[in-house]
Write a structure and sequence with these properties.
By secondary structure, the chain is an alpha+beta fold. It folds into 2 domains: about 5-155 and about 330-455, FAD/NAD(P)-binding domain; about 165-325, Elongation Factor Tu (Ef-tu), domain 3. Helices cover about 35% and strands about 15% of the residues. A hairpin with a 2-residue loop joins β16 and β17. α1 packs parallel to α11, α2 packs parallel to α11 and α2 packs parallel to α13. It is globular.
């Protein structure tokens, strides 16, 4: 079947990039709209597609972790985002992290060169009335389009605040103090660790609590509701003296081999009281991301307070932490698990706009929305993923949760259906979730392929 009218994808982030690629790979023409560089956003720094604005990490890589399982499901489903992330991965212990500049530039070139993708650098002010459309405008949807979406849905946006961590130049780090290690020596020793004793930690904590925050923009000041999975470090500090030590600064499982074996009871006194971790940002190791240090402090305050961290006394920052508002729709009221709008079947949405949280979840939404948009164009039935897969469970959740209390959801094992038999050991339980998900995904893919082949015969 030949499709003449192109599908329109609005927004060139992770979800939009994935959606456009899946549509084109299905043999359907697609117009991908991205307003940058014609119009910039408060969070982006380049004009490339699929720019990673917060961190360069897609989360844990192991398939018995929620994000890792989602990686593997997408990998087995032909995701262009995950394939490119694998291609340009940088050392990050057990995480999938990428050289973000090369990653987004490569994706931009691949989509721009695809014969069925028409990349247009212009702003879309209204939801197209005709044809099949995929909305992937993300948390910073332009005001005109946001207003039109609000009119279409008949309800207000919901919102939370998201923040990005600072990035430090590797040459400015004091390697006499920091040490390389991954937690519990798992995988390659890919993290740099800044150890703090109790006195240093308390001084840092106090300074962080007292540091001056940046003034919010007018559009952000209306509602300042933080998402718990991306809490600014200063907000975490204000929750209590030890909150950071049980969060991003937890010292457990981190050992400096230069001081002897910390697992030796005689060396326990040498264990750090808290640890700030730095994750490699680029393939060459020139840049390092401060893990868990999302922040809205003034830039001058960030430099002053973060240089109190041992090993970062002379830190040179190539990017300071920033904070911006994320917006999302009330997906349980509006969307089906196919990511089609209930009131307009030819309109689909994906990414953070629909209330999924994280890079990989945005990619997964783009994959499903793009796949289903192409199937609609080809006269095929849209797909609903098995809810025993991480992708299926995520979209089942955002389309069926309580609308009254709906909040963004990252991939996690808590949204998967229970296993037939209760397993107390967490690692074994997660492994069983993984095995079931990947087996059910394979069976589902075979069934869809057989069904499509039968219908086309």
């Amino acid at each position: 079947m030949t499709v003449e009218q192109p599908i329109q994808v609005i927004g060139g982030g992770l979800a939009g990039t994935e959606a456009a690629w899946q549509i084109a790979q299905a043999g359907v023409p697609v117009i991908l709209y991205e307003m940058r560089p014609q119009r910039s956003s408060p969070a982006h720094h380049s004009e490339h597609l699929a720019e990673l604005v917060c961190s360069n990490s897609f989360g844990a890589q192991a398939s018995d972790r929620a994000s890792g399982l989602l990686h593997e499901e997408l990998r087995r489903s032909g995701s262009i985002i995950i394939a490119t992330a694998d291609e340009f991965a940088v050392p990050a212990g057990g995480a999938l992290a990428v050289d973000r500049g090369v990653f987004s530039q490569t994706l931009t070139e691949r989509l721009a060169n695809h014969p069925l993708i028409d990349l247009r650098r212009e702003e879309v002010h209204q939801i197209p009335v005709d044809g099949i459309t995929v909305l992937t405008t993300g948390p910073l949807t332009s005001p005109d389009l946001a207003a039109d979406l609000q009119r279409f849905t008949g309800m207000d946006y919901m919102s939370f605040f998201d923040a990005a961590s600072p990035i430090v130049v590797g040459e400015s780090i004091n390697y006499d103090i920091v040490f390389r290690a991954s937690r519990y020596d798992r995988g390659e020793a890919a993290y740099l660790n800044c150890p703090l004793n109790r006195e240093q930690y308390l001084q840092f904590w106090q300074a962080l609590c007292e540091a001056e925050q940046a003034e919010l923009k007018d559009f952000e000041r209306e509602t300042a509701k933080f998402f718990e999975g991306c809490l600014p470090i200063e907000e975490m500090a204000k929750r209590g003296e030890d909150t950071m030590r049980y969060g991003p600064l937890k010292p457990v499982g981190l050992f400096d081999a230069r001081l002897g074996d910390f697992r030796d009871p005689d060396n326990r006194s040498k264990r750090p009281y808290a640890v700030v971790q730095l994750r490699q940002e680029d393939k060459a190791g020139h840049l390092w991301n401060m893990v868990g240090f999302q922040t809205n402090l003034r830039w001058s305050e960030q430099k002053r307070v973060f240089r109190m961290i041992p090993g970062l006394e002379n830190a040179e920052f190539v990017r300071m932490g920033v904070m911006h508002r994320n917006t999302f729709i009330n997906a349980p009221e509006l969307l089906q698990p196919t990511l089609q709008f209930k009131t307009r079947q030819t309109l689909l949405a994906a990414g953070q706009l629909i209330g999924t949280e994280g890079y990989t979840a945005a990619t997964a939404g783009g994959w499903l929305a793009g796949t289903n948009a192409a199937r609609l164009a080809l006269g095929q039935v849209p797909l609903t993923l098995p809810n025993t897969t991480m992708m299926g469970a995520l979209f089942d959740f955002i389309s069926s949760a309580s609308p009254k209390h709906f909040q963004p959801m990252p991939p996690n094992f808590g949204i998967l259906p229970d296993l037939p038999k209760r397993i107390r050991n967490k690692q074994e339980r997660y492994g069983q979730y993984r095995d079931r998900a990947l087996a059910d995904l394979a069976t589902w893919q075979q069934q869809i392929a057989a069904s499509d082949l039968h219908l086309s015969a």
